[in-house]
Every structure is written in structure tokens, then in C-alpha cells.
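cache lookup: miss for this entity combination. No prior model stored, computing from scratch. Input as submitted by user K.M.:
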Amino acid sequence: MTLVVQKYGGSSVAGIERLQAVAARIAATVAAGHGVVAVVSAMGDTTDELIALARVLHPDPPRRELDLLLSTGEVVASTLLALALEARGVRARALTGAQAGIYTDGTAGRAAIVAVDPARVLDALATGEVAIVAGFQGVCGAGPHSEVTTLGRGGSDTTAVALAARLGAAWCEIYTDVDGIFSADPRVVPSARHIGRIGYTAMLELAQQGARVMHPRAVELGSHYGVPIMVRSSFHPGPGTVIARPGAALPAALQGDCLPMERDKKISGVAHDNNVARVTVTGLPHANFELHRLFTPLAAVGINVDAIAYALDADGHSADCAFTVAESDLAETVQVAGAAAIALGAREVRTRRDVAKVSLVGIGIQDTPGLAALAFATLASAGIPIEMVTTSQVRITCLVPEGRMEEAVRLLHSAFALGTASERAPNRDEEPAEVTLWSA
Amino acid sequence: MTLVVQKYGGSSVAGIERLQAVAARIAATVAAGHGVVAVVSAMGDTTDELIALARVLHPDPPRRELDLLLSTGEVVASTLLALALEARGVRARALTGAQAGIYTDGTAGRAAIVAVDPARVLDALATGEVAIVAGFQGVCGAGPHSEVTTLGRGGSDTTAVALAARLGAAWCEIYTDVDGIFSADPRVVPSARHIGRIGYTAMLELAQQGARVMHPRAVELGSHYGVPIMVRSSFHPGPGTVIARPGAALPAALQGDCLPMERDKKISGVAHDNNVARVTVTGLPHANFELHRLFTPLAAVGINVDAIAYALDADGHSADCAFTVAESDLAETVQVAGAAAIALGAREVRTRRDVAKVSLVGIGIQDTPGLAALAFATLASAGIPIEMVTTSQVRITCLVPEGRMEEAVRLLHSAFALGTASERAPNRDEEPAEVTLWSA
């Protein structure tokens, strides 16, 4: 019996009919002879609604209580899905994160999974039951002193991949409201090409640079344990995207679903993210400046810093340091890094919210000279200012004004010919292509 | 520091404003120098709504999944109450049943509390926090194989009294939507008298015979551990009812709240319950009839059988057995007892739903000859048929047609002069008093 882990996101279980459709899909997977572990998110907007309710009562709800509150959303969804399956004659058992053995480090709001004890899940599978696991949550400790913690946004993906890895599942399916991964957001670039297969590294960069289809931590976990991940729509059939090691053989069931492998693409796609804010600390005394004293406090509260730029002033005695964080982390960043900057004797801390990241992602980037130059030239030709640049092995990211983000995505997508075959390569001397792309 | 356990029912926490009012009440109790453990039910109709949702998906939801689903209601209420307290500057910690150390026997849907491990609650109190405990739920076991179970309807009362007993609290307050215990349901008998103090035994009989103010198991637990219980309204001030051992000294805080002790009352009140069904098994072969074979299977599935009447037929060879169960248990009762009856060679199993129990309750009942005779005469004079009678040390219960239940309550309440001093004792030769009681 092949074991498959399926994850259903909030939109896939929003309402009775969708729950029943998910039950039908799981029943079909069971009928095909597979063992199934299903990980579910809270139904629809439940999580946002609970947060809103909490904020009515408390302007800044303590994270520990908020986690306990939010964890109920996934428990409700998983028990209801179990009932929908039982009503179809498919035996099912709903499990909380604690019952599924998802142990975390206890960090409220963004806990990391430290271990998975799959005893209960295996018991369910051994007795022919589908195990329905409440995603997004785990437990730290046991007994009265245990704490329920959530894994942060998108955490259900992480729950699913962690279970798939620990259980040695043949693959993990992520059901969502899109058809998989595209060379750019189809809402921004209508000619965006569907990607049949992509490697973990490129997917990780896409996810980290704003492709919201999958949570980056889940991709990382899949990469570490070599779990093939299929991302697909729960709303209509059709090929999804397989995330797997380049060249690795895939389970037969996944081969039919994905398009032929594409080995020759230097660039997989263009990602964008406007949940970005830039923080600039100016006038840092160079003589006694220790960069870690700015960033260690941020790490301590769990804030990820993305691009960092550091430059000496012309006088050689002081320096400016600019970095980006998620816009949703900005208030806390200013609080924490601001205090550190003052202690360091900096002149001022400035923030900007109206910036966005546009990223070219692909495993060929570092091997191919001239890609960065083409990207910069493309943006420059349209007069889009590049405010910061960061690169990795497989990524070039430019910080641009938020209002020009979508234009930048479309220009880069065209310049690197990432679209469907029918897309006409634009003549960059003509009017930008996006004018007609939005005319419909 | 005096430790007080307060329980807030679903109507007391239905909505943001009521949660804030509860928080204000708890804050006042803390300000008065008390340590507080607050046990909360799910907000408003949450539990019924979750059950309805479950039934849309499954006609007969498996109890184990239903318990896990329902348990979320109390977790939501307790976390939101903790936030409301924190927002007022009162430190609070929401705890699930498992975190509060409420261990059960694991019987889904009607679990019994087998132990309370108060370590976490004591930690919260020791650091000056209010412990907010999700009522109605407990856990069986620990780690992945733990099961969340609910204690059945009214179980939050049981959670509160169990915690009060285990923690050695000075008293337990049950906040509800009525002003305490009355000599009859004030909606049925407008002249019903408020009871300032009542013993556990009389309260237990009242609760078991349909007075919905407190769950009988909670009263029993209070009796066993001698926990003084104050039942009062969370909606407006005024005296509640203290449930305590007759003659026992009360904490000073409770003395001001309750009316003078009333030692001379033979009858405390009249209770009624129309959640009753009668099952009659006829033609049981007397020779090999073993009564336990009918009732043991019912006990095994946790169904409480109330009145039992057993009589030989005129021929002396077969017998009829009638008994009552909660109407909500009727379907399961017919299934379980019906199978047993067939195996015993019975002729038929008949059921009736249109019956109700009317009970006189008071510690003087068994000592005072003639009370039962007066009760029967009162009902007979109004032409109300008595279909079964059961008695205990402190109770006389008559099974009457459901349509005449309220009339019977009013007649008995008048006949035993249980009402307020201003109530005119009715002349039973005149028209029944209830005709004018409803004229307003």
C-alpha cells in the first residue's frame, strides 16, 4: 500500500459542499489502494475571523492565548472532514496536532517542528482509517504543562511535508486554489507559463520571494528529506506542479500529472512580493559599529531580515545600513532594531513601506553571465528605479517602488521569454507590453 | 488569599459585551483579594451550532469526533475571556481541560472525571494569574494517544466543582441566567419562592428531576467534598442560592448573599421534566425472566434508567416491565433494550414520549406521613392521571401526561403552600389557580 499525505488549504474546505468534495477526493484515493493522511487548514477565513475577534477584546492579543484560540479552527475542520468521510463509509479519525505527534519548540505564533511522533497516525492507518490531521499546529511538552503552538501562516504545508517525511510517504499533495506553479503570477502576467516540474531550490526561492502557493519552510523540509511534492488545484482537475530533486525518478502516479521535464530553462519564473518594508539606519559610528548588535535582537524575536546593504559614508567615519523585512514585521522591527540603533549611536532610523521585491529565479542564474545585466537593463529601459539588489545562487532580487512592481514583473517575464510559446517576444523599443495585457 | 472558583455558563459569555462584563466581575473578585479560577462554557449556542453542522455532514456523528469538535467551543470562550482580562490589566491564562489537568475515563460524550492534576492551575495562581479553564471537557491519557472527551451537557458545572474540591477552594460560584433556585420554575409558577439556602440532597433531587439550574453530577461532587456552591445570576445583582451541608458554617462572603436559613420546610420545591419517555416491555416470560438482562446492556452504554415498575400479569406466568429514560436517549434505549427483550422472549416493546415527571422534593418527605397522599389527591382532584410513581428519601415523583405537566406543578406548589407569603392558598373546590396565573 502506497502512503500519500494530502494537504487541503482553507479555501478547499470552506463550507459543507467543499468539505464533501474533499471527502470524495480522499475516498477516491483510498479506493485506488492508497493509505491517506489528510492535513487540513481552518475553513475559509476562520483564522482571520478569530484574529479579528481577539483584537476586539485586546489591541495586541498575547501570542500564547492567540495560538490556543487559532488552533481550534483546524480542529473544527478536521473533525468535520472526518464526519464527511464516515458518512461516505470511509473510516476516518480526526487528530489534533498533539495527537498526530507534531512536537514544536514552543515558540508561540511561529513554532518550529522539532519532532514528529507518528504512533497515533500509524495506528489509524493500520486499522484502515484515514488520518485527518489538524494542520498549522503542534504541541510543546505533554500533560498539564503542554502548550499548543501554531506554526505561523502557511504552517499546514509544513505539517503535511513533515508528516510525509516522517512516515516515508511516497509523496505529498498540496491542494490549493491554483493549478500549481507558474513562471509568474497569472493575475499579473496572463501569458505566464505553467511549470510541470521544478526543483526544491528554485521553488524555495520562488516561495520566499512571494509566490504564495507554498510555504517556504515546507519546501525546505521537502528538500531536506527528498519528499516529492505535488501542488495542484482542489477545484478542478488538470496537471499540477511536481517539486522534486532535478532528475530524480518520480512515483508513477505523479508522472502522468506533470508536463515533460524542462532541463534547459535558466530561469524558472518571476516572483513578486509587496509585503516588504525597507529600514535604513543612518550615521552609524563606524569605529565601534558591530553589525550583529543590530540584527541579533531581531533574530531573537524571530524576524527574518532579507536584503542587507551596508556602506560607509563619504567621510569614512560613519556608515548607513539598509535592510528589508516583511511589512507585517515592521512595527516590531522598528521597536527592536530602533532600540539597538540608538544604543549604537546611530543618527536616525528611516522606514519605507512603498517598496516591493521582484525576483528572477532559476537554477541557471549563477552559471550564466549577463542575466543580471539583462534584468537591470530591462528595468532601467522602463525607468523603474532599482533601490536595492540581492542575489543568491538561484535568484536575482530587485527592490522597486511598490507602484511599479507589476510592470517590472511583466517586463522581466517578457525579456526572459518565460511565457507560453504563443507569447510574442516584445520589442523593447516599442510601448511596454503590459498596456495591452490589461486591456481585456 | 481566599481561592474562589467561578463558572460562567454559555449565556453569560454569549458575545463580546458579556465576555467583558464577566471580565469586569472577575477583576472585581481579584481586586477583593481573592485568587480566581474561572471555568467557562462555550459562547451562547456554539455547542448546538456545532452539533447541527456535524449532523449536516453525518446523520449520526461518531461520538469521539463530535467530542473533539465540541471541545473547541470552550477553548474559544476561555481564550477570549483571557484576552478580555488582559486588556483590563488583569493577568490571565486560558487552559484547555487537558492543561487544567482534568482527566476523564475516556467515555466519549459523557466522560466521568477520574482525577484532577492542578499543577498548571496552581502555577498560574502562584504567579498572580487568573486561571481560565475550558469547561465541559477533559482528557484521557497523555501524548499522541490522549483523547479529548466531553463530560456531557452541563459538564462545565462538574469541571468547576471538581476543581474547587481539588484546589480546596473556599467556595464555588455558578453564574447562570437565573437568580438561583426556586420552589418551582418561575416561568410555570410565577409565585415561586426564591430559596436562599438548600442542602445537597434536596438540590440533587431537584436537579435530577428537571431543575436545569445546576447539573446533578456537579451537586453530587459538591456534596461528596463539601464544597459550598453559590448559584447566582451573572446578569444582575441580588441574592443567589447557597448549596451547602445543612447547618454548616458558611464563608462570610456567602452569608450576606443568602436569605436566612429555612429549617422548617418539609418540601423545598416542585421540579418538572418533560425530557422523559416511557418504555414498556410486555409479556416477559416470568419463569426465566432475569431483570438484569434488560438493564445491564443499557447501563453498559451509559443510559440512566429512572423509574422502574414491574408487575406480574394476572395469569402469573408473564410480566410487564415499564421504565423511564431521558427522551433524548429513547432511540438508543429501544435499540439496546429491544434486542434484550427479544432475546428474553417478550411479547412487545411500547414507547411513549408524551409523558413528563413532576416531583416534590424536600428533606422532610420521608419523615412526614401523608405528604404522598396529599400529592396524589391534589392531582386526582384535577383529573390528572398518574401513570407511574417513584419515591426516594427526599422525593415523590409522578409521571403525568406531558400536556398537563405545568398544571400539575402549579397545583402541587399551591397545595403544599410553597409560594411567597403573598400567595393566596387556593381553594381546591374553585377553578384551578393557573387560569388566572397566566392572565397577565
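stored under new cache key. Residues 3-263 of chain B form a domain with the Carbamate kinase fold (CATH 3.40.1160.10).
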